[in-house]
Amino acid sequence: MGYVAVKGGQKAIERSNLALDYDRIKDGRVLDVADILAGMRPLVDQVMSESSLYDEELAALAIKQASGSMEEAVFLMRAHRSTLARLYYTNTTSTKSMFVERRISASFKDIPGGQLLGSASDFKQRFLDFDLLNETQEQVRETAENFEKKEFDAPVMNLRQLPKVIDYLEEEGLYTSQPLNDREPDDITKSSIQFPTSRSQRLQSLTRGQTGAVTSLGYAGIRGYGVASHPNIGELRVGELPLHVSDARHPDEEDQAYYIGSIITTEVESFLPIDVTDKDGKTTQSFAVGYGLTFGQNETKTIAMSVLDYSLEHPVDGYPTSDEEFVLLHVDSVESTGFISHLKLPHYVTFQSLLDGIREIKKGGTAE
């Protein structure tokens, strides 16, 4: 086997980096971080979700630096996140305290507190709007001002304490809530996940999974590669979740905790029918819940997360979306894109070895 020396590439690498920097600015236009924040909200939310770092400005900066590449932006954010000190941990927060901006149910038309469509692309026609090619700052300001002046005829709702739809199901005896689990969650950013996993490890892996991967596997689960039936969205809510940090002098007194701000999150509770056998051996039908929670407004991913959560909580032998190692190790953006990208790196020695073996066989010899 011949040896191929790998040297002399440092200058080429430096010039490649310079060419990449030049590609981002060669048109002479500066993409402002504020413009990304103002006009690319779903992209910012997706980067924050997949990087497990809630910082809108840093996410927009990562998108700018990566020239819009999602995998690069998430990688940059994860790398930056790993350098940050952990100063405090927030208290446990209930999503019942969320200030709701959007809330829908596909299971019940009339839900306690009512449905709130909010801002969503669900009802938009998917036609290109060519007027946007010539949109001006003046038009944008005028449109925004007209919207803000509008008075909508809508019932007054307390958006901070809306009841949960699942409570309605439990009142009818169709769902039994799980006992409160005060066990400290396993933090997968500090220790790698071990199999079999805990529920907290699974939920963390899914919530920071690559949006496309989580969505694809959730879709596969519905098509018969996991859950056996079609899930129903009991409730999807998007809103601001308040966060508090305990006063070190009074760690057990919640009313002494400090409010440190709110984060926008998407939460989904999907209902799936299951058979329940009581102590007398009688089997009845009830509902189980698949759960999803992500940073920002990431509705499709969060729905898919709830499907996968159910698939992993109620595994069916032989189905790939019930295999926690298959799901959790393949949805991670940095893991998957990093491994695939490494195939571009030099494999000269291993490939030469493969070539030598094939050549030897063709000559009639035996590969060692």
> Treating each run of at least 4 consecutive H or I residues as one helix, how many helices?
13
**DSSP E strands, number:** 4
Alpha carbon gyration radius: 25 Å
Helix content bin: 25-40%
Mean pLDDT across the residues is: 90
Which structural class should the secondary elements be placed in?
alpha+beta
Strand order of the largest sheet: 1-2-3-4
Terminal residue distance: 11 Å
Strand content: 5-15%
Low-pLDDT regions: none
Order of helices and strands: HHHHHEHHHHEEEHHHH
Given the C-alpha coordinates, what overall shape results?
globular
Most strands sheet:
4 strands, antiparallel
Written description of the protein model:
This protein has a four-stranded antiparallel sheet. The chain contains 13 helices and four strands. The chain has 368 residues and is of the alpha+beta class. A hairpin with a 5-residue loop joins strand 3 and strand 4. It is globular and about 75 Å long.
Write the layout of secondary structure elements.
Layout lengths: L9 H16 L7 H7 L1 H11 L4 H10 L4 H12 L17 E6 L32 H13 L15 H7 L27 H9 L3 H15 L6 E14 L12 E20 L5 E13 L3 H15 L10 H7 L2 H10 L5 H15 L6
Antiparallel strand pairs: 1-2, 2-3, 3-4
Helix pairs in contact: 2-4, 3-4, 3-5, 4-5, 8-10, 9-10
